[in-house]
């Protein structure tokens, strides 16, 4: 049998050399100075597509692809759908996890100093200061709107406390043409793109200037003008939608990508898996940005999955992936900037797992002290605060001082309080807006519902809010 196999391989190899004008080594096939074989153009250097490979190339691979492991059975390879697979005589199971966790990319240490040898994208003074200004603005906005909800002035709110670097630094690395499909903890991306404090207030109070016409819960922002899809409450539905948006950009040959944000809890939804597989197969230029903040409301990651976080899941679907420190503004900026370039120029999806911590409660409907220790929250709020760390770096460059800090915080607070007063006094949308903007011609069943609602209001006017015009 061994002699027969040797003879067969020699004949196939000779045929390959003659068909291509002489022998070529494996290093020549993969040489960067010449065109890479079709199956190797995406970097999967030991996988060959099922269709389109010549018998000669397969013969080369049989002899040079596989290192000699001392078992003759391992030298046999067969093209299965998806690539060439080697046979071995020993049964092996992949381990449930790696011995060591995937490393986490970081630029700034906890004291705001750059780590020796760290590689990152340089930012100008102007860009660095805008990033810091918006991080502080987002923090103040969250604090005041949260207090407004506690006062009963708005019905609901949700903060981004502890995740300001993720919001602002990722937005800074994108362009205005990139499409954003958020979850609900990315208002900073809108802030960076020019959404005003008045526009935020209008949405939270649901007045007639709210782009959603009062039909969404507070913090469900959206802006066509800023390429920011309206927030949708169901978890992870935006992921496959982002892939479709990215694929349309690719078809139109746009110099842009799509980015979608989601939390660690969203990776337990089916749409996460469908979205990643969809993106990998279509090679869509989309960035999947996961905020792994340790908690899906009250469910810790230890009770949600056994894998090494989220980064390994991207690799399982054939997506280039990285893990970064989400509380490090420079690391976030560098990673998203690089991911965007790869997504567009190479036509591929990218997964980023940002390790962070949700300092605030999940929302105004939650009390996180019921399921996590208060000292843990306080540690992340103080020792690991992304704004404080970034400020130390900015101030260390001589770009910021205490007087500017005080002026900024007072200015933002006054602007926001003024925006809330204006939004609160603004009339609500008319009742008829409940039935518009879905159909070109309103169907009869909706007309009937509208008439029924008006009849009910006429019969019980005292039960209807007086500030909502009929």
Automatic annotation (TrEMBL):
Ranges in coiled-coil conformation: none
GO BP terms, alphabetized: branched-chain amino acid catabolic process
Gene Ontology molecular function: any one: metal ion binding
Cofactor: thiamine diphosphate
Catalytically driven reaction(s): N(6)-[(R)-lipoyl]-L-lysyl-[protein] + 3-methyl-2-oxobutanoate + H(+) = N(6)-[(R)-S(8)-2-methylpropanoyldihydrolipoyl]-L-lysyl-[protein] + CO2
UniProt keyword annotations, A-Z: Metal-binding, Mitochondrion, Oxidoreductase, Potassium, Transit peptide
Gene Ontology cellular component annotations, sorted alphabetically: branched-chain alpha-ketoacid dehydrogenase complex; mitochondrial matrix
One Pfam family it belongs to: E1_dh
Localization of this protein: Mitochondrion matrix
Keyword Metal-binding appears in the UniProt entry: yes
Domain of life: Eukaryota
Domain Dehydrogenase E1 component: 134-430
Record-listed E.C. numbers: 1.2.4.4
Segments for region (Disordered): 56-81
Complex formation: Heterotetramer of alpha and beta chains.
Family, similarity comment: Belongs to the BCKDHA family.
Protein known as: 3-methyl-2-oxobutanoate dehydrogenase (2-methylpropanoyl-transferring)
Gene name tied to this protein: LOC100845243
């Amino acid at each position: 049998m061994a002699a027969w196999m040797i003879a067969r391989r020699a004949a196939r190899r000779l045929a390959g050399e003659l068909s291509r004008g002489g022998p070529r080594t494996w290093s020549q096939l993969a040489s960067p100075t010449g065109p890479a074989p079709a199956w190797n153009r995406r970097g999967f250097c030991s996988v060959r597509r099922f269709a389109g490979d010549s018998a000669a190339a397969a013969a080369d691979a049989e002899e040079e692809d596989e290192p000699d492991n001392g078992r003759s059975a391992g030298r046999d390879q067969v093209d299965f759908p998806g690539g060439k697979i080697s046979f071995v005589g020993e049964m092996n199971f992949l381990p449930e996890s790696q011995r060591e966790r995937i490393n986490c990319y970081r630029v700034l240490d906890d004291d705001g100093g750059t780590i020796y040898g760290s590689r990152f994208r340089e930012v100008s003074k102007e860009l660095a200061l805008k990033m810091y200004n918006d991080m502080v603005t987002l923090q103040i906005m969250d604090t005041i709107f949260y207090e407004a909800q506690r006062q009963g002035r708005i019905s609901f709110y949700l903060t981004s406390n502890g995740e300001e670097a993720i919001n602002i630094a990722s937005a800074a690395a994108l362009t205005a043409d990139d499409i954003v499909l958020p979850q609900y903890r990315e208002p900073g991306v809108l802030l960076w793109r020019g959404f005003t404090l008045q526009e935020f207030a209008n949405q939270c109070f649901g007045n007639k200037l709210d782009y959603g016409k009062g039909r969404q819960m507070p913090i469900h922002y959206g802006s066509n003008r800023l390429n920011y899809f309206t927030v949708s409450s169901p978890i992870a539905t935006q992921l496959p939608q982002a892939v479709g948006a990215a694929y349309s950009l690719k078809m139109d040959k746009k110099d842009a990508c799509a980015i979608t944000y989601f939390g660690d809890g969203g990776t337990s939804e089916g749409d996460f898996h469908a979205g990643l597989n969809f993106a990998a197969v279509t090679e869509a230029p989309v960035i999947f940005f996961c905020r792994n903040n340790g908690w899906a409301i009250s469910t810790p990651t230890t009770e949600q999955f056994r894998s090494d976080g989220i980064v390994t899941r991207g690799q399982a679907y054939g997506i280039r992936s990285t893990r970064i420190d989400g509380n490090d503004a420079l690391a976030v900026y560098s990673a998203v900037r690089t991911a965007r370039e790869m997504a567009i120029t190479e036509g591929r999806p990218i997964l980023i797992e940002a390790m962070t911590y949700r300092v605030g409660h999940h929302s105004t409907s939650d009390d996180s002290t019921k399921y996590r220790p208060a000292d843990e929250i306080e540690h992340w709020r103080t020792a690991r605060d992304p704004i404080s760390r970034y400020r130390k770096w900015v101030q260390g460059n001589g770009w910021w001082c205490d007087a500017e800090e005080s002026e900024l915080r007072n200015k933002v607070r006054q602007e926001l309080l003024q925006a809330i007063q204006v939004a609160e006094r603004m009339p609500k949308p008319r009742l008829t807006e409940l039935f518009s903007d879905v159909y070109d011609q309103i169907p009869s069943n909706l007309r009937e519902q509208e008439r029924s609602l008006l009849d009910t209001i006429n019969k019980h006017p005292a039960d209807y809010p007086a500030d909502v015009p009929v």
